[in-house]
Amino acid sequence: MKYLGFMVGSQDLYGEECLREVAADTEKMVKFLNEKLSDTISFKLLPTVETSDICVKDVRAIMDDDECVGVVTWMHTFSPAKMWIKGLQELRKPLLHLHTQANEKLPYDAIDMDFMNLNQSAHGDREYGYILARLGIPHEVVAGYYEHEDVLEKIKTFARVAKAIDLSKHTLVATFGNNMRDVAVTDGNRLEAEIKYGWEIKYWGIGEIAELADKATDAEIEAKMDEYKSKYTMATDNVEAVRYQAKMEVAFDKFIKENNVTAFTDTFQDLHGLKQLPGIAAQNLMAKGFGFGPEGDYKIAAFSSVLMKMAEGMKGATGFIEDYTYDLTPGKELELASHMLEVPASFAANKPEIQVHPLGIGGKEDPARLVFDGVTGDGIQCTLVDMGDHFRIICADIELVKQPKPMPKLPVARIMYRHKPNFEIGTAGWCYAGGAHHAVVSTALSRKEIAMFAKLTGTELITIGDDTTEADLDRI
């Protein structure tokens, strides 16, 4: 299981008895955290930092361990921060500064200088905080008693973000074809994306999927069809079209496993060798946590895989979506978000139906796709765009709502949502910020996780929500 390294700071000034108490208190703390947060992350206690050499050894040990996704630090006593410099300079993973102490309350009747020397996190953590600021290391601070629920929840949030950043550094996006011709926002600096986030973006011809699909066996196709029938309602007589989607998903499964891919893109302008645009195949893979970007949008493919990892184990849906059209009824404005085919099955409020309809674009056979109405609840819409000299994340608060009326002639899956604080400010802010028409929507995540990810990766963040005013638009 992925873990967070736990480093406690002290020094040898107070003697061996004090250091034994530091070790015992920290061991108790780490045991408690492992029990309480076992559904999200585990913690590994490292030797107490008493010297610069120990600090360097601790950091090196976990930086070279692929199972470690981040570091938690806490100063039990005063820990002179110069001895942390060399270790912190080797840090390559997210850092949480836990500003806590071993005791919740002061023993007013018994407190003496021995107690003060042992339990001086208020002193040691400020010294440590200074050196983090001095070195300019992005980090998160969680302040409060470590057993309190609000503190545990904040540590859990950090763990989710750290695991997402770890996935980001191991993300491989397979782009089948280039981005859609003449589209600006799906393009960008792929080299810079790898430097900054670790995303490897590599090109393959879609013909490789076509070849793998042609080699799919009847047994493999039937296994996939059985999966579809168990999860979805067959609402078409064109079973051959559905079987072809199964063939494509079999092909994607093999390709993904062979190349260790975490996200992929395709484009309807390059379907050489395929009979259909991937529909169910893409929707089903997204529901399993694989990132996807249509029209060659490698940024949203990678970003969606990272945010799905961040939301892992949380209640709610997370995945790719595209802005499409509006209902502009005054005071009741809503957005209808969808795509030609590829809306993740995780957004389904009802059991999805498998339907086959003409696509009207791409010049291929009628593709099979999942059709459903979307989930409801508070959520966020996020996108990541390339501004030329830096990347920018735009994160908007939204409310996913039930569609006001049935849409019997709309042959695609969809969600509907209300922009916050209102339509005018919410959509204007998105446009001012350069927000893309491709995004990740989540009813599991909130702005706090996105803000933490942006801070720890050094990414510019623009947020839009109930606290956004019309005056704020001039400052975007």
Q: What is the topology?
A:
Layout: E1 3-9, H1 16-36, E2 42-45, H2 52-63, E3 68-75, H3 85-88, E4 95-99, H4 113-118, H5 121-135, E5 140-143, H6 149-168, E6 172-176, H7 190-197, E7 200-204, H8 207-214, H9 218-231, E8 233-234, H10 239-259, E9 263-265, H11 280-287, E10 291-293, H12 298-310, E11 318-327, E12 334-338, E13 353-356, E14 368-371, E15 377-386, E16 391-401, E17 414-419, H13 423-432, E18 438-442, H14 447-457, E19 460-464
Parallel strand pairs: 1-2, 1-3, 3-4, 4-5, 6-7, 6-9, 8-13, 9-10, 16-19
Antiparallel strand pairs: 11-12, 11-18, 12-17, 13-14, 15-16, 15-18, 16-17
Question: Care to describe what's here?
Answer:
This protein has 476 residues and is an alpha/beta fold. Helix content is 36%, strand content 22%. The protein contains 14 helices and 19 strands. The protein has helices at residues 16-36, 52-63, 85-88, 113-118, 121-135, 149-168, 190-197, 207-214, 218-231, 239-259, 280-287, 298-310, 423-432, 447-457, and strands spanning 3-9, 42-45, 68-75, 95-99, 140-143, 172-176, 200-204, 233-234, 263-265, 291-293, 318-327, 334-338, 353-356, 368-371, 377-386, 391-401, 414-419, 438-442, 460-464. The strands form four sheets. It has a six-stranded antiparallel barrel. A five-stranded parallel β-sheet has the order 2-1-3-4-5, sandwiched between helices. A four-stranded parallel β-sheet has the order 7-6-9-10, with helices on both faces. Helix 6 runs antiparallel to helix 12 (298-310), helix 9 crosses helix 10 and helix 10 (239-259) crosses helix 11 (280-287). The chain is elongated and about 80 Å long. The two termini are 41 Å apart.
